Amino acid sequence: MELFDSHAHYDDEKFNEDRDEIIEKIYSSGVTKFMCAGYNLESSLNGIKLADKYDYIYTTSGISPNDVNSTIEETKKDIVQLRKNIIDYKDRQKKENKIDKIVGIGEIGLDYYWNAENKDVQNFAFIEQIKLANELNLPIVIHTREAVMDTLKILKQNPVNRKGVFHCCPFNRELVKEALKLGFYISIAGTVTFKNAKNAREIIEMIPLNRLLIETDSPYLAPEPVRGIRNDSRNVKYIAEKIAEFKNMQAEEIAKITYENAKTIFKICISREKQ
Q1: In the CATH hierarchy, which fold is given to the domain comprising 3-273?
Q2: Which of 1, 161, 222, 274 is deepest in the core (most CB within 10 A)?
């Protein structure tokens, strides 16, 4: 069974002691592609380094709502720097005839659970990074928590050309319904396996197979039956298995479908990989 983990954080300090060893074990386990998602300037640069080091790792660059600066003016400077970092990298890869491994802008979005006092800065950062994604013709990777209505409002008022993915999507009926209408993919993480996951089956049944992705959000959100430990991409199989149970399918089918979906939304194709 070949798997694609569409969202993880291998630059995280929790992997400092054994990063290369874990990455090699993941690949050997059958997870033959995975995404290292950026969430601030430093992690975005680290994601690029990992993607350049391993053929099977791709990356996204962005500033998450939990990593925006204290003011709009300072956040604007960070986004200018983010843009420069991405363009410099893309220009270098093109000049050296190497594969461009930055395949999305993210993770970006809104989080009113951890930070409700700086909504104006979060909204500014979200909108500006949507503009950046459109400029670079890239999809976005969205983080949203306790901010469903504002997230949808911004997406409706600021159309995303290449659409993108709701990562670790909350099990909120309205969010999923509207996200699908807008043309976005829905990525399911380890929370789908939790015994207290409300609406999980209903949400999974709502998502068409051609809009479904799976992820671990490693090193966080380890799924059952390994909940509570440091998560890594080898555990994405448990998410595929739970979704298969809800969809009355085989896990191998879910693995194959989500693998192809991830390649589609991030424009990772066979010819590109062999450049």
Answers
A1: TIM Barrel (3.20.20)
A2: 222
**186: enclosing H helix or E strand:** strand 185-188
Q: For the chain, what are the domain ranges? A: 3-273
CA dist., res. 10 & res. 49, Å (int): 11
pLDDT tens for 107-130 read 999 999 999 999 999 999 999 999
20 φ/ψ angles, rounded to the nearest 5 degrees: -65, -40
CA–CA distances in Å: residue 271 to residues 9, 274, 275: 26, 5, 6
DSSP secondary structure string for all residues of 101-123: -EEEEEEEEEETTT--TTHHHHH
The token pair at 231 is 């998560």
State the pTM of this model: 0.96
d(CA 263, CA 121): 32
Taking 90 as the threshold, does the pLDDT of residue 236 lie above it?
yes
Beta bridge partners of 33: 4
| Alpha carbon distance 55, 231 (integer Å) | 22
Sign of CA dihedral 58, 64, 69, 71: positive
Cis bond leading into 225, ω under 30°? yes
